[in-house]
Design a protein that fits this description.
Blueprint (H helix, E strand, L loop, with lengths): L16 H17 L1 H10 L4 H22 L9 H19 L1 H5 L6 H12 L15 H29 L8 H6 L8 H25 L4 H12 L17 H13 L3 H8 L5 H4 L1 H24 L4 H16 L14 H10 L15 H19 L8 E2 L2 E2 L2 H27 L4 H12 L7 H4 L10 H15 L3 H4 L4 H5 L1
Helix pairs in contact: 1-3, 1-4, 2-3, 2-7, 4-6, 4-7, 6-7, 6-21, 7-9, 7-10, 9-10, 9-11, 9-12, 11-15, 14-15, 17-18, 18-19, 19-21
């Protein structure tokens, strides 16, 4: 069963009612979730709960109204055009409405800062413009965590249901795995999303329990479990995860790795295929990459801190896992670790986790496919008359997939360059511009340098730079091409 339907004529492709119905419904649901931080603020006895009540009512009224008015246009499936509009529309609308409690409430954020914070949350980027986090009402801190948690499960479903059908960035490689392989067990995409959601909730509860055992308060354990499993990285303290330095770093590292692995494999493991995770080439590649990077960083740190081998190992493991998974927690200012590790951290952030996980950035499978293409090209140069085929997981890969991956890399590099230049034009220095562009489009969290590095945040940037980063976070989270295609004439012509 496919989630998409091809219309008989181009005119029906312009029907926006199915898109409006889904977006309106999700906005209304978002409004209902605002009751959770509202109840927390009521229990705390502060008056901030009114901000969530006002924002929630607005979301329910506007979202519900749009959904009801568009319900007459419902069809059994969506066209490809409607699907692209829906994915982008959801990631624009929900952060916009999710910013309302930040505007109405005790944070006193401007519209620019509130939208930046909400977009950073929902795209699980983790960059923040708020200082003095520990002094904020608990409702706001919980809302930040909820935004990231919702964005995390949203991107998994998006990656498994929509991207393979939209043929974005080589994701069509996983179409058979998302639907055919699991077809006998979970024949419909909605059932796949349902099973993944159960695993996502279970993993969140397990993470929260582990944090509680290690001494976190119930509130801290809850919020940090939400932002760990979503690989989002919002923390309740300006010092990020450094407040919990110690065994909690090992636990956080474990759950960040688990969240960055493909969730479809967890579903298959629960259905008896216990080796599916290890047989997945991207999962193996991701785990081996982390192991090698941690050992390299640990070796360097032991030369800097020769008498603190356990601490060096723990900090190398935690911070590398945090950056490569796109979580963005920081337990130490790694800008003090020397130029080699600073440059290493920059490139680590451009690797990313696995497709079909909460992780972000380029994704490990695209590098594997790129290396497969390079290997084939070298073989053809050495043996011009030979027949060589790029393979992934032992299977030949279609040229369409390879072309899509190469195109993704080209768009990623060009986007990174354009964003860096745009940020530089706002007056930012070279390091802040380049690392800011990279951390936004790869949805990592902290950048490099004294301003937006692990010891700083994005509050001092000018409004122009913040809006550029808002767009970059959106584009990066939706795999670039899912957004860019909307701005082509061919898209609107059907």
């Amino acid at each position: 069963m496919t989630a998409f339907a091809r219309p008989a004529n181009a005119a029906s492709m312009l029907d926006l009612r199915p898109v409006g119905y889904v977006i309106g419904l999700l906005v209304a649901i978002l409004g209902l979730t605002m009751s959770l931080p509202m109840l927390v603020d009521i229990a705390e006895g502060n008056g901030h709960w009114a901000a969530f009540l006002e924002a929630g009512l607005l979301c329910v009224m506007i979202g519900g109204g749009v959904s009801i008015s568009c319900s007459s246009g419902l069809r059994p499936g969506l066209t490809i055009q409607q699907s692209f509009l829906l994915t982008t529309g959801v990631w624009v609308a929900l952060p916009a409405f999710g910013s309302l409690p930040l505007i109405f409430g005790a944070t006193d954020l401007s519209v620019t800062d509130a939208v930046f914070e909400a977009m950073s949350g929902f795209t699980t980027t983790g960059s923040t413009v708020i200082t003095g986090l520990e002094h904020l009402p608990k409702g706001i801190l919980l809302w930040r965590g909820i935004l990231q948690w919702l964005g995390g499960i949203g991107i998994i479903v998006f990656a498994m249901v929509f991207l393979p059908e939209l043929r974005v960035g080589g994701m069509q490689l996983f179409r058979s795995e998302a639907f055919d392989t699991m077809g006998k067990i979970l024949p419909r995409a909605t059932e796949i999303a349902s099973r993944i959601s159960v695993i996502y909730v279970g993993m969140t509860l397990a993470c929260m329990f582990c944090y509680l055992v290690l001494g976190m308060s119930v509130f801290d354990a809850t919020v940090h479990a939400l932002t760990t499993i979503s690989t989002g990285g919002f923390a309740n303290y300006d010092a990020s995860f450094a407040v919990f330095s110690g065994p909690a770093e090992y636990v956080a590292s474990l759950f960040m790795v688990l969240a960055a692995l493909p969730f479809v494999r967890y579903v298959q493991m629960l259905n008896g295929n216990y080796t599916s995770m290890w047989k997945d080439p991207q999962a193996r590649g991701f785990l081996w990459t982390i192991l090698v990077l941690v050992l390299v960083a640990w070796a360097v740190l032991t030369t800097i801190f020769p008498h603190h081998w356990e601490k060096s190992l723990r900090e190398a493991l935690f911070n590398i896992t945090s950056i490569i998974s796109g979580t963005g927690y920081a337990s130490v200012d790694y800008m003090q670790w020397g130029p080699f590790l600073i440059v290493l951290f920059f490139y680590i952030g451009l690797i990313g986790g696995c497709a079909g996980s909460t992780a972000c950035s380029v994704k490990i499978f695209r590098y594997q496919l790129l290396f497969a293409v390079m290997k084939v090209q070298v073989q053809r140069i050495r043996s011009p008359h030979g027949v060589f085929v790029a393979r992934y997981g032992g299977r030949p890969v279609d040229a369409e997939v390879l072309n899509s991956v190469v195109a993704f890399f080209v768009f990623f590099v060009v986007t990174l360059g354009v964003l860096s230049l745009a940020l530089a034009l706002t007056g930012l220095d070279f390091t802040t511009s380049v690392s800011g562009a990279a951390t936004a489009v790869a949805n990592i969290g902290p950048g490099l340098g004294d301003i937006i590095g692990p010891a700083g945040n994005f509050s001092t940037l000018n409004d122009s730079a913040k809006w550029i980063l808002v767009v970059a976070m959106l584009v990066g989270r939706l795999e670039l091409l899912a957004v860019y295609v909307i701005f082509t004439l061919r898209f609107w012509r059907g």
